[in-house]
Design goal:
The chain is mostly helical. The chain contains 5 helices and 4 strands, in the order ββααααβαβ. Among the domains are: about 50 residues, no CATH class; about 50 residues, no CATH class. The longest helix has about 35 residues. The radius of gyration is 27 Å and the shape is elongated.
């Protein structure tokens, strides 16, 4: 197959396609991360996050519908600014300085570093809430049935299983009241 030079749009007549062929990585000369370029990079990350959110919302529609909807979303984003709410936080000078150092080490801006930290914390809180919901449901099942397995019995069973020894599955018994 004929491949056009990097960075050009090339026709692939046998497949009936056109594709952008990027230059090989890493770029030569290396990218100079100026503040302006870093800001544009951060904006692109936010746009990708928005696109990812659209993908999550579209998980139940056909892939063709999802692609068309995403394309429309991208085009709308290029043509007009999508409104985003603003939140102001006050940070101590010491924390600002720690964030700046950590962001530099991570190769990002302090703003992006803070956004990622907030997203990670929100994800952790959501996963913790899911875990709590599962634990509550399981506890409700124990309370409803009145049966449970003693930890000593379960531990012996698990240790035997791990050692490859024959093990009898413990039997749930009524809780002592």
């Amino acid at each position: 197959m004929h491949r056009p030079p990097p960075g050009l749009i090339g026709p692939y007549p046998r497949q009936g396609l056109q594709a952008y062929v990027p230059a090989p990585l890493p770029p030569a000369p290396p990218v100079e991360w100026s503040p302006g370029l870093r800001r544009r990079y951060d904006d692109a990350l936010v746009a990708i996050g928005r696109l990812d959110a659209v993908s999550a919302l579209l998980h139940q529609v056909t892939s063709y519908q999802a692609v068309v909807t995403q394309w429309c979303y991208i085009r709308a984003g290029l043509c007009e600014e999508i409104p985003m709410s603003t939140t102001t936080i006050r940070l101590s000078e010491e924390l600002k300085s720690r964030i700046a150092v950590a962001a530099r080490r991570a190769g990002t801006t302090p703003h992006n570093f803070i956004l990622e930290a907030i997203a990670e914390k929100a994800d952790l809180a959501e996963r913790r809430a899911d875990l709590d919901a599962v634990a509550d449901a399981r506890y409700a099942g124990i309370v409803a049935s009145g049966k449970t397995i003693a930890w000593d019995d379960m531990r012996t069973y698990l240790e035997d299983q791990l050692a490859g020894q024959p093990a009898r599955r413990p039997v749930a018994r009524k809780l002592a009241r």
